[in-house]
Structure formats: C-alpha cells, structure tokens
Amino acid sequence: MADLVRLFNCFQPDHYDIFLDVSRSEKKFSGKTTIYGTASEKSIGIHEKDFDVTAVTVDGTPVKFDVDNANEVINVELDHTGEVAVSIEYSAKLTDTMMGIYPSYYQVDGEQKQLVGTQFETNFARQAFPCIDEPEAKAKFNLALKFDEQPGETAIANMPETKVEDGVHYFDETVKMSTYLVAFAFGDMQSKMTETKSGVKVGVFGTKAHAAKELDFALDIAKRSIEFFEDFYQTPYPLPHSWQLALPDFSAGAMENWGLVTYREAYLLVDPDNTSFEVKQRVATVIAHELAHQWFGDLVTMRWWDDLWLNESFANMMEYVAIDAIEPSWNIWEVFQTTDVPAALKRDAVDGVQSVHVQVNHPAEIDALFDGAIVYAKGARMLVMVRALIGDDALREGLKNYFEAHKYNNAKGSDLWDALGKASNIDLGKIMESWLEQPGYPVVSAFVEDGRLKLSQTQFFTGAGKDEGRRWQIPLNANYDQAPEIFSEESIDLGDYEELRSSNGKPFRINVGNNSHFIVKYDETLQNDILSDVDQLDATAKMQLLQDFRLLSEAKQVSYAEVVPVLKQFADSKSNVVNDAVYTIVAALKKFVEPGSQDSDNLKQFVRQLSDAQLNRLGLVSVDGEDNNDKLSRPYILGAALYADNPDFQEAAHAIYLDHQDNLISLPADTRVYILSNEMKNYANAESFDALIEEYKQSTDPSFKSDICAAVTSSKDAKLVGKLVANFEDSSVVKPQDLRAWFAGVLRNPAGQQFAWDWIRDEWQWLEDTVGGDMEFATFITVISNIFHTQERLDEFKAFFEPKLDTPGLTREIKMDTSAIEGTVALVEAQKDAVRSAIK
Asked: What is the value of pTM for the model shown?
C-alpha cells in the first residue's frame, strides 16, 4: 500500500445522491452514487473498496476510469475543472467484518435473523459508496435505500424517512457532514420514543430478541444527556432526531453517527430488574460520550485524523460531566479515577508511546491511532486539567464560541485552545502544547534537602526509557500557597520546610484532586508526614497515594516490598476508589509468585487478611438502600475472597448458586460473576461447564454473557479450558466482537495460558482475516503484554511478533508491548525475593 494521498486536495464534494439496493439473501448490494463537487484538477481520485465498478459518467457523459484496488481509489479523467457531477455505478458484497455495510446475526425463538447496519469510521464509507472518504470532505447526503424487505421491517438513517415508493426508502437530506458519520440500518426492530424539552425526537432501537423494558434506561439517559448538552454547550442539537441503535454484532463499543448512534448491545440495553450498578454507570457514560460527539466531532470535526483527540478526548471528559450533572448521587468521577486515570498512567509510562497528537503518514496508521489509553483516557485527563484550570464558566463560553466559529466545518487543536484561551484569558496553547505534542508524563519529586522544600520533574518510565529532557507545564494543585500554579522548570525551591510546614499546619501535598496528569514521589520525610495523617485525607487522596506507590514500584523507584505493609492501613476503607487501589496492587503482586507454590499460598493468606473483615461486613449480596460505595466495593472484596480460596466465601457462594441453578440469570447481577466463577473454579464438572456454555449461547443478556465468559475461562480444569479455545473460531459460540475477552480470560488462567498462546500463534492469519481491519485488532497484542511476565514468555513473544514489526498499524504496538514485557520481567527478577518475604 502506498503512502497517504489526500484526494480532497483535487476534488471537493458538496452533495451526494446515494442509491443502494441490498440483498441479504445473496449477501451483496448494488448502487449508484452521484457526487456533485468542485474539481481543482482534471485527474481526480474517488475512494472505493472492493467494488465492481461498471460505469462512470461525468455530467452525464461516460468517461475513462481505472480502479486502483491497492490504493482503494477510482481514478477519473475530466475534460474540465470546476463544478462537476460524477456518477458511479457499482456492486459489492456484504461482509462479516463488522465494517462497511454488514449483517448482525441473532435469534428469536430459535429462528436465525439479520439486522443490517453500518460502521464507517475510520475510512469504511468507501466500502458502501464511492466518496472522498476524508473527514475534511464534508458534504450533504441524500440516501435512497432498497432491500429485500419483509413485512413489519424498519429502515432508519441519520435523518427522518420522507417517503417509501416502489420499495425504496427515501431519507431527508443531511446537514453538511463527514462521510464516516453516515449511517443506516434495516431489519425487524422494536423501538421506544420520547422528546426533549426543545423538541428533539429521541429513540432507542433494538432487535426483538430483547424485552421491550430493556430499552427504557437508555431512552431516559439519552433524553437527559441531550438536554444537558444543549444547555452546557449553549448550542442547539442540530438535527430533528437522535436514534440510538443496539447492533448484535459491533466491533467498537459505540459509534457517534450523526442522528443514528450505534452501540454494542452491552452498552445500550439494560434489564431494569437485574443489572449491576456498575453496568448502569458504564452504559450511561457510553451513551453520554456518543451524544457529546453530536457537537464535538459531528458538528465540528477534526480536519484530519492526527487531531482525533479533538473528538475523542473531549467526548471522554464530557461523558463524566454530563452524568455527574444528571445523576449526581452516582459520584461518577470516581469511575474516571478508577478506569481512565490508571489506564492512561500505565500506558503513557511505556517508552515509545504515541503522543495525544500524532502525525499520520500511512493509511494503515489511522486505525492504530485509536489507543484508548492515550487518545481517550489521557486526552480526557488533559482536558480535565484544563477544566480545573479555567473553570466551567470559561469552558462553556469558549465552547459556545468554538461551535459558532466552526459549525458544519472542521477544526484543529489550536482552534480549541484559541477559543478557550480567549474565554479564560490564559495562554492555553502554550501550556497544552507540552501535553499534546509530547509522549509520556512527568513524575514530580517532592523532597526536603538542606532544610529546603524542593520539587523537580523528569519523565516517568516503567521499564527502560530514554530521558530526552522533556519538560511539562504542570498545574501543580498544591495545598501550600507558596507553590506556583504552573510548574514548568526542571526544579524549584519553595523555601524553608519547617517554616512552610508550621505556617500551613498540614502535610505538604501536590496534585490535590488528582486532576493533573503526573504522579508524585515524596521523600521519606514528606511521605511519613502524609501517612501519619492519612485518616484526614479524602478517598481520592488515599487512592492517589496507593496509585503512585504502585507506579513507582513498577518503575523500580521503590519496592513493592515497601508497599505490602502499607496496604493494611487502607484495607477496611468503605470507599470504592480506595478498595480499587488496594486490590489493583494485590493484582500486581501476583506476578511475583508462581501458581501453586508456597509463595502463592502466602499471598492468598495475605489477601484473606486484607479482605476478611470487609467480606463479613458486606456479605455476598447487596441489600435495599445500600450505599453506592458498598455496591461498588463488594466486587473487589468478593474477587479477593475468590482468589484467596476463602472457604467461607466458597461455601456461601455455592449455596447461592444451588438456589438459582435452574435460573442462573436470576443470580444477583452485582455479584453474579463471582458466584459463577466460584462454581467453575471449585465445584464444576464437565456437565455443569457445558451447561453454562449452552446458557451463554442461548442468552441475549450481554451482562450475563460477560459474567459467563469470565467464569468459564477461570476454570482450573485444563481439559475444560482447552475446549473453550476450540470454540474461538466458531461464531455461533463466540462472536468475533467478544473474542478478545475470551482470549484474555484463558490467557490469564494458568490452566489455559498455553492453549491461548498456542492458538493465537497458530491462528494469527485467521484472526487478521476476521478482525484485522478493526481499530481494536492491535489490542490482542496489548492483552498479551499485560499478562506475560517471565523470560520464557518474553522470548516467545519476541520470536513471534518481531517478524511482524513492519506490518503497518502494528509496529508501535509490537515495540511498546515488547518493552512492557521486558520491564515486567526485569521488575520481577529484581524484586521477587523481597516481595515474597514481605508477603510471608
């Protein structure tokens, strides 16, 4: 494949007339697309992929053309520049790759059915219709859709349907938008509708395999989210409707198609009678994320994929802003602290990581940009930092001006900083350049030297890393006024420590609130002062201490052996964010012990000491009126009890399982995964194992299916786990969209690791053929790097993946993950003896 060529430079579309005729039975479609636009050259290119092009006309006259399949371009020769109308007739196949136009498969009452939908981000619109498939090439679209329609079926798209004639569904003209946001779907659907205060119609659609009540939660969240965003952005929602569609097969989590947002069923449909609070939080934030995009990404779109963060980072922050506003009792920012923050800090500490803003030099690199921990999580944290710096009033004013200046067009990162900077009277561009353009983040060392309180910054690495002298403009958020608001130097002297400590009357801390993207290394004097007063800290501050201890341990700047005794100070916390931090460290300790060894038994005993009191306090089942912190803490405690082979837990969980064995989906959703996992690990036989797999195949509840996946992949029986791997390529058991979770579960299980590792090496070509164009494909490699921690596995990893280093879109991932495993292997070797001793 050649280097990247921007077709928009030669041909600027203004309007598309698209006709598509889709046959599900023959798994193909034909179409005619007319593109009205302006040609600045007589030789133009139009994107296509896997089309059989039968005719091309310009202004009604047939012209010469050739199809360059390698570069996915139809080359067309014109006899004039200026305004032209290019018509292309073609046919193509529907695929099962979950890209372009594709069928989703599901069953209702034992009958196999299809719901056809679309996925065009990043550059898959060219698989559906000829186009300039670049985000800057915004145009208006008229869609006419015909399909092998059955009675009672529905067709939906970005805009309302205007008429149906001779079996053709016609939809209203769209506003000016990018090709990757065009969407439509058709099939046998059910829906529920409501309307916002401003008159926007809101609907949730899904297949009839689900109960109608499963649409209610999403409908409520979607309606209130749109109302919130209209108010916060001070900019009306620009379309007549907002449809939310759950697709049975979907590669991403969700996609912000303008007016027709598509989701995995797991991220939209909720059983109101038995769904965990955690899942409700997740679904709500996903919906809010996609609806935030209707302005930030859809109304104003990044000019090119290198500014992808402009879409995703902002939507990632705004999902929390929105849900915090409409459900304040949920304390949703705690979820940000336990998911996005640690993901960003872990990934961004590996040498070779991409910066938030990344140049794109090759088509295959576009999908590789979607690094969730960087473009989503780090970018969101970067914007949380900005919000804390400028305040909501300036943020809202800046966004209103940004939307007004760039609506229906494209923007760059500098346009956002300009708008927010003018609203806040702060040179945000100067501050944010260091975060946007540089990979990694700093560790700020706070220490007392010669009686003086000093700070210094240097880039933080876990594993090997080359210090290139990078410096960041760091919002310190210190609790001493003597510290500057922005710390940009290599080091700074804040003054006499004793005087500062006396005048402030509290231990010195920085990054209060944990909003800025850095970690802190306190020296012994400052650390002991904080720990002696730890009960006075809020939950976020306690979590932050543990988080920084863990990361510093991963970097070998301190030893995990020093952290082990500290955990007992936090073990009885009633805060879920503190419990998350405690048991994240516990999970990290597992790599220092061999499964089945005395050291492993010692660790299990230690985990029981940490968790027993909490297990007795919380029990296995939530109760009515329970505090949200208890609901969210219980999974950490039950996970600890499951790992630690706690006999009281095992017996109690088994008893609950037996009470529900004839209707396992009725197990309490908050703790169902632990009850099922306990059963599979400690009580299952081949019969009950196979029965649970059959439950998985038959169930339409995505939360229940996820619980089953986690349970069966944790079995101690190698023979049974081997049977799972044999099903990896059977889509009637494991859909490709869910395969990564199954693979990760088996790979993490000592009884199954060899099966999973052999499978991915033997079946790499099948995996690439099946999900290779998916933006999440490279994360199969990330999964491996998160689990492997021995020299033997490192050698095998390098032997398999190094020959693939030149594969476009995989190069950075392979290099980073090799580095990550090398760092883990070195860490284990350096600290294992001390850690095992500390645990004992």
From this structure: 0.96
